[in-house]
From TrEMBL:
InterPro entries, alphabetized: AA-permease/SLC12A_dom, Amino_acid_permease_CS
Localization terms from the record: Cell membrane
Pfam families noted in UniProt: AA_permease
Membrane topology: Multi-pass membrane protein
Protein name: Amino acid permease
Keywords from the UniProt entry: Amino-acid transport, Membrane, Transmembrane, Transmembrane helix, Transport
TM spans (from-to): 46-68, 100-119, 125-147, 154-177, 197-219, 240-260, 286-311, 331-354, 360-378, 398-417, 423-442
Keyword field contains Transmembrane: yes
Residue intervals of the Amino acid permease/ SLC12A domain: 16-428
UniProt xrefs under Gene3D superfamilies: Amino acid/polyamine transporter I (1.20.1740.10)
Main location: membrane
Amino acid sequence: MENGNQKLKRTMTSRHITMMALGGAIGAGLFKGSSAAIDMAGPSVLIAYLIGGIILLFVMQGLAEMAVRNSEARTFRDLVQAVLGKYPAYFLDWIYWKMWVLNIAAESIVAAIFIQYWLPDYPIWILALSVSVLVTAVNLLSVKVFAETEYWLALIKITVIVVFIIAGLILLLVTFGNHTAVGFSNLTEHGGFFPNGSMGLISAMLVVIYSYGGTEIIGITLAETKNPEKVVPKAVRSTLVRIVTFYLVPFFIIVSLIPWNEVNGVPESPFVMVFKMVGIPGADHIMNAVVILAIISSMNSGLYGSSRVLYTQAVDGRVPKIFAYLSKRKVPVYAILMCTFALYIAVIFSLFAGSRTFDFLMGSLGYTVLFIWLIIAIAHLKSRKKQSEKTSTYAVKWFPYTTWIAIIALSAILIGIIFTTSIIVTGITLAIYLFITLTYVFKGRFQEN
């Protein structure tokens, strides 16, 4: 093993981090969370995802600008601490770590549930354990192997989503054989476009924010990206266009093809339901395989992000130095193994909670993504004042209006979510945030360099 003070290796390129951001954001939140979002908002879920996409655009533009202005930054904390100070940076680091650790744990269970579609006689805990070992092994290899694996996993699911869009449009618009073109009547029937009113739309925003969460993982790749000042803005632009496209268009097809009140409560993903309608033998199995790959891809990105946060914390002396050690391949092995601990806890937890794990954790994870975006937006708003004299090759258009829109929108969503989310989920999330704050007050402050 080599000493952790040596730098991580810059081996990731634009295509790697673009696909990694897609891998983190196009996962269980899309393929499984879609059922919950549609159940809450009905066809108006399209508006929810459009609003979320616009907010994401403004937040990620700010992140890209800060990354370009601070080319020596390794993660979010370096970007935020230079602008907002130590506590917001500390808080952001740990809620981001908490988000991915809980997310990969929940998604290991979801992957196991979908694998049971083929192996119904195997218990969830065995299947979740198999997935966890696979993801751990990929991350323990070199960064280049991890990045290539994530690239191809993301590319496979994106390709199938494109096929899904084409097939869905054909089902909507073309009559063939025994199939009659469905049209768009399902958008307004069954209670109208807003069947659950504005509160349904607001409730769905928590799922939307959670679903888009993961895109900001670009901010964790800074230390391992070649020419981040050029690569990050390019990756942000291409990623945002693809994410909004891969969410809005598929959701439009789903709520147009299937009555919104028939989506929730069924064992398979809405994407599998649509592929069944195509009538091609084995289409549902193909889609189920893609859903599983999507979840493993998201877990892959999540383990990467959480381990790098823990690594940089160790380098700076905030956690035990053992997590700062790198292997000969420049991989923070102990940080990765620590983060995978959550995976194996989830395997044990699955013996009792089973499939409810994902639904329960999604609310808390949605809160966390929302706070991460808020902190990034606020940091960007103040970064111009702090670094006004520095020249930059990239700057956000229409600053500060876009950043203010993001902050106001996220604050409004937060207030709405508090009144529409389970008090248990809100309480647990608040307790976690208070714990993080207390660790800063009693310990973190004295460990700052």
